[in-house]
Amino acid sequence: MPRRKALKVVVDVQFHAITCPGVFLAEQQDVFLNVELLGQRRRTKSVPPVFPFLFHEKLRFDKVFSHATDPIQIANALEGETLRIELVQLTYPGGDLLATYEDSGREFLFPTPRISPTYPGVDREVLLQRSYSFPGIAPKLEFSSRTIIKEVTSVSSHSSSSKKREKKNHRSSIAREESVQPNSYSTFEHPVEASTPHSTSRPSSNKKDVKC
């Protein structure tokens, strides 16, 4: 099956703390962060509800952009990716949403006009938007991020689609042939054979890394 070059983005976000001087939560249940990036959702461990919230935890996100061939295309693709961070308190099943932060993947990972930050992994800060149930001023999230873009190989989607169409046509042809053949076991119910699911192969060995 033909293979083509693609670019994989691997993002490590180190969540340090959330600060909010002078603010005290009325409820005593633990809090945590829900983070959605590159179509994946992760959450941090739970910490006591006393500011500052000290997470000191790294979350990893990754995605293969099969049609990207250079970092500029990756940056443009990240413009369409949404980052969402939620500060949640376990006051009841499902949690109470205290504050949120939302931005495009590009602005979050590359806040400067350049593709590569001047100092990768440098500590940064953003203000969360508090909900109606959050007392006091907007909390501040302290974090650092590191993004790696590496070249991988992926199976051509066009080739995969062609294979599926050929397989479907082959099965239809067999079904038509069987339908015109006389069946001497008219009272016998033939079992229906379930199609075997195909596992998606993971990308093969990496060739080249481009660090941002």
TrEMBL record:
Keywords, comma-separated and alphabetical: Phosphoprotein
Region spans: Disordered: 154-212
Basic residues bias locations: 161-173
Superkingdom classification of source: Eukaryota
A single Gene Ontology CC term: sperm head-tail coupling apparatus
Pfam families attached to this UniProt entry: SPATA6 (PF14909)
One Gene Ontology term from the biological process aspect of the record: spermatogenesis
GO MF, one annotated term: myosin light chain binding
InterPro entries: SPATA6_fam, SPATA6_N
Domain called Spermatogenesis-associated protein 6 N-terminal: residue spans: 11-149
Family listed: Belongs to the SPATA6 family.
Protein name: Spermatogenesis-associated protein 6 N-terminal domain-containing protein
Source organism of this protein record: Ciona savignyi (Pacific transparent sea squirt)
